[in-house]
Amino acid sequence: QLQSIAVPTLVIGNRADSIHPFAMAEELAALIPTARLVEITPKAHDRARYVSDFQSALAIFLKGLLP
Question: Is the pTM of this model over 0.90?
């Protein structure tokens, strides 16, 4: 079913998330044809940078949707 997603999709992950391992983010991104995978700083390492990285990744993704 993931392969049928036909809209731009952002997958965000980090390598310190034990609940959602980065390998899972990589797998999801590989299965969704329109997915873009972005790795961000783990919240446990630097919360301010995590928030900044997340906001930046989302902003870049959303800007890419504009005509």
Answer: yes
